[in-house]
Design a protein that fits this description.
Two copies of one chain form a homodimer.
Chain A lengths: L4 H9 L13 E4 L9 E6 L2 H9 L4 E6 L16 H12 L3 E4 L2 H4 L5 H10 L5 E4 L4 E9 H12 L5 E3 L5 E8 L6 H10 L4 E4 L7 H10 L5 E4 L2 H19 L5 E3 L7 E2 L1
Parallel strand pairs in A: 2-3, 2-11, 3-4, 8-9, 9-10
Antiparallel strand pairs in A: 1-4, 5-6, 6-8, 7-10
Helix pairs in contact in A: 5-9
């Protein structure tokens, strides 16, 4: 039996908690809900390259964690004729793609599905001490911050991490925050509440948590921070989602399409 | 005649535009407005180390662009007894420091004083085409993005920059945005409005402007982005402020206290 775009959307939305989310970001941004799905491409962000790759894989439904037009609330800061927007809209239309934004739902699962994917990718399922609404706490065999960074880079396939604190410091209790949850209001209290040695987050404002950790280190209170990058912290969760969708819709090819780190170093 | 803390505050606040700013961030966070100023330390952010350095220089008034406690609105996410906060409060008290946050005022000068400092530090005073409220546009002799990055690193004393786009691309028209002005709502329209080849900003959300530039490059519309870091983009403006305060209060030693980049790479 044919799988329609709406069938996949329904499957994603039933994962949500019961509370309605009228201001949520999740929705079918482009495409026809009644179209038959030839393949699903799951990604952190539907970049132009990802859209082309999805089409090349034979997929006509793209499930993107972040928005298509560089804004959480899908607000365009420019006219649709702006050349980059135009090129992207043109690609979506000419390739016949449906694009569903799946952000709030996956974060709102019993255990945040994005966090779950990161914990699995790091191989830390056996070390999780607690899941908070916006963070997880893991209790690892003691290692240095430098060793921790090497483990994270190897497991996530990253060339580098941004870090604060002394790489020679020993750490065991680590807080994890995915995406843009690195702000001081979330990450700073976590250190004290869970007696953390280190925090690993995706993205956050530079002079909040990083400066807190720098001050802590200067005050002789050993703390450290590793910053993964937003995409780098959330991609594993979208990869996990792709696996689950493949189980749910065995007749439809499901592809996880990774994005490379957006920054290079010069 | 003795210079009091309030005299310096008055000098800073008279630089403001006329409109009142009841929700502004600028205020005397710690210390006594009637105390005699033995020296002024000007910095991007009053880290614990900066506070100690200020004291070592004989300064008892610290002028900090960003807040002391890792939050723009000076809201503490933890109790004051939290060890890092406690160590910092203790240092401020025991070193007898006054700390004035000077953020909104310096950005609100006729030409944003932080922008002015960055333009001077880059040696681009002769290339400014226009000043917008939150950005400047410079028209430079054509060079590659790689050469532009080398110039910026050399002039600002930075070991590395984060970049998006092709380093071999030629650029001439460049937009500058200091601090946390790299968001898509500000930076993306700037590209089109001023036909920019490249944007250089301090800090911004990772999947907004950077992903726009990546898509543009993929669509064959040559664009590039250099990300300085928040502190790295604003320190030169605070250095300029220190020079101006030294002229204004010739009897008081004025020190600019730089902060090192908060991140290292692992």
């Amino acid at each position: 039996m044919a799988v329609r775009v709406q069938d996949v959307v329904d499957a994603l939305e039933e994962r949500r908690a019961d509370e309605a989310s009228p201001n949520g970001a999740d929705r079918l941004l482009f495409g026809d809900a009644s179209a038959e799905v030839t393949g699903i491409a799951v990604t952190f962000m539907a970049t132009l390259e990802v859209l082309e790759q999805a089409h090349a894989f034979g997929a006509n439904l793209v499930i993107s964690h972040e928005g298509v037009f560089y804004s959480h609330h899908h607000v365009l800061p420019v006219q649709e004729e702006e050349p980059v927007y135009h090129a992207k809209l043109e690609a979506i239309t000419s390739l016949g793609l449906a694009v569903y934004r799946y952000h709030d739902g996956v974060h709102r699962q019993g255990i945040d599905g994005i966090m779950e994917g990161l914990v699995q990718a790091l191989g830390w399922e056996g070390f999780v001490e607690s899941h908070e609404p916006a963070a997880a706490v893991v209790s690892l065999p003691p290692c240095t911050v430098g060793e921790l960074a090497e483990h994270v880079k190897r497991r996530l396939g990253l060339g580098m991490l941004r870090a604060v604190g002394n790489p020679a410091m020993t750490c065991s209790r680590v807080g994890l925050l995915v995406g843009y949850r690195g702000g001081g209001g979330l990450a700073i209290p976590l250190f004290e509440r869970h007696r953390l040695d280190a925090v690993i987050y995706g993205e956050g404002p530079e002079w909040e948590t990083p400066e807190y950790v720098r001050d802590a280190a200067h005050a002789g209170q050993a703390k450290a921070l590793l910053v993964l990058g937003h995409a780098e912290s959330e991609q594993p969760g979208m990869r996990l989602l792709a696996d689950r969708l493949a189980d749910r819709f065995p007749s439809v090819p499901v592809h996880f399409v990774p994005v490379a780190p957006v920054f290079t170093l010069l």
